[in-house]
Amino acid sequence: MSNVEAEPAEVTCTSAPGTVEVLQPRNVPLGGPRAMSVRRTLPQKQRSFIGAWCFCDHYGPDNVRMDVAPHPHTGLQTVSWLFTGEIEHRDSHGVHAYVRPGELNLMTGGRGIAHSEVSTPSSTVLHGEQLWLALPDAHRDAPRDFQHHVPPTVHVDGAEVRVFLGSLAGSTSPVTTFTPLLGAELVLPAGATVELPVRPDFEHGVLLDTGDVTLQETALTPGALGYAGTGHDTLTLSTRDGARVVLLGGVPFSEEIVMWWNFVGRTHDEIAAWRDEWQAETDRFGRVEGYDGARLPAPPLPGGRLRPRGNPA
Ligand code: MN
């Protein structure tokens, strides 16, 4: 088949260094007891990872009650980051904690963990992000763990910066991860232009929560995730009316994963076996004490075999 245009335009197919790719969110109703809808930017066809960040759900502000019954995880770490609201967390590592705005809660479910998440009675509005980190092969059976950290606020070019994972602007999170990573919330005042020194071996994503922001030369709409590949020494963020963004980064994750329901694995058979173990209530995932209600049953596996995927070349 041939191009039938009379005067085909010249198209440059290589992306120029510094080009920002915009990942638009899609709305995903979570259904079930969690009557809320999220804006998902990772994973999507265009991109599976930013560093080891493999899942990015952005939600609210919504007047909803969250009640997620005990459910399992494998091969990943979960990061809960709230802007508004309060969520009570219980897990099979024996942790009972509260997720609050500006406080990092990182749960490790390598070999297997279970947890529940319920908004507290005083929490009427929920607004935040649920993020997952894929564990690299050498650590994907890591034992259950839970780390909590309240990052201090530092200032860069008038912006407030809270570094919850990794290092930025002289602020370093003490929270340990299994691959080099960055996670930070930035609040930019109206008219600000912020130059952030970043590691050139990292790729980065900027999720616009509220307001307006331009990453390098590319304006983002609220809910979109701007992606900048490796090779940058600085990232420039500017805003007209002010903005709140979350900056994610990491060394590109080179492994392929199979992600289904709440599991990150490497093969279909592994995922199917974990699903059976959850249904059979084996001790791989343990018990969540103190949750009032039944645990979440696993959905049926889709027809056909789950296929591993990585980032497009
Ligand atoms: Mn979970």
CATH class category label: Mainly Beta
Instruction: Summarize the main sheet.
Output: 7 strands, antiparallel
Q: What is the helical fraction, as a range of percent?
A: under 10%
Assign the CATH architecture. Answer: Sandwich
Order of helices and strands: EEEEEEEEEEEEEEEEEEEEEEEEEEH
- Provide the spatial order of strands within the biggest beta sheet: 1-22-19-24-17-14-13
Question: How many β-strand stretches?
Answer: 26
> Which stretches of 5+ consecutive residues score pLDDT under 50?
1-16
Counted up, domains total 1
| Rg from Cα | 20 Å
Which secondary-structure class do the elements indicate?
Answer: mainly beta
* CATH level-3 fold name: Jelly Rolls
Overall geometry: globular
Euclidean distance between termini CA atoms = 25 Å
What's the CATH H-level homologous superfamily? Jelly Rolls
Question: β content, as a range?
Answer: over 45%
Small molecules bound in the structure, each named once: manganese (II) ion
| Number of H/I helices | 1
